[in-house]
Design brief:
With about 280 residues, the chain is of the alpha+beta class. The chain is about 20% helix and about 35% strand. The protein has 2 domains: about 10-125 and about 260-275, Rossmann fold (3-Layer(aba) Sandwich); about 125-255, Sandwich (Tumour Suppressor Smad4). The protein is elongated and about 60 Å long.
Amino acid sequence: MMKLKFKKVGIVVKPHNDVAFHLKRTYEILKELKVEIILEKIAANLLNLKSDISREKIADYSDIIILIGGDGTFLSVAKQVVENQIPIAGFNLGTLGFLTELNKDLLDKYLHQIFYGKLKISERKLLKIDFKRKKYIALNDVVASKGNISRIIKLLLEINKVRVAEIRSDGLIISTPTGSTAYSLSAGGPIVTPDVKGIIITPICPHSLTFRPIIIPDNSEIKVKLLSDTTGVYITIDGQEVIPMLTDDFFKVNIYDKKLKIIESIDMNYYKLLSEKLNWGI
């Protein structure tokens, strides 16, 4: 009998209309595989079981995370997965699902492939954000933007300690190639394949049309400083954490020294994924 690649499996789900069906099937398959199952509180409740393990702690007890949900759910657990250096497999319940690439209707096939080592593991780079002596991690992006204020804000952009521009805009997005299909894309930024060694800087509705999105080497250090004398400006990290930013506050961005391990189907092709998710040629 083939040896299982993983022994302790954490399950994370997004509360959704049809998640209970797929969660129950996942649980049954994992029981058949005779692996140890660790349930996040939400998943346990849906199965009428008990668990005190939170989403923030589940990676501490697992060899792998199985996620059933959308990209937002994926981002909410990504930091813990990275710090524990375990892989994550995302089954998509959402609409786009660039991160949750695995088809929920093929659970049986993919789960058996995962535990017998027949799927591939790709690695994605993350951003490290330093702000007021605290460290934050982003898989997709970090955004400096106005809240409900109607005025534009002024940000100073420096790259490798070189003053690049004073940007008057609604904000600025700094993203990884993985995050290029998220907020950056909707703001007019380029799509960048995950294997490109770059960081994307995209302005949000810039006052000057001459400042365009730029891709820089991923060994660069970026510094963004708020010059505007205004309140209501925030730093948003992966759409999960929102932190107030005051006049003369600044944050620095580098590539993080750890990578996220994502389990993908063997036949996964990024260009095919783009075509399907963005309805190209349809």
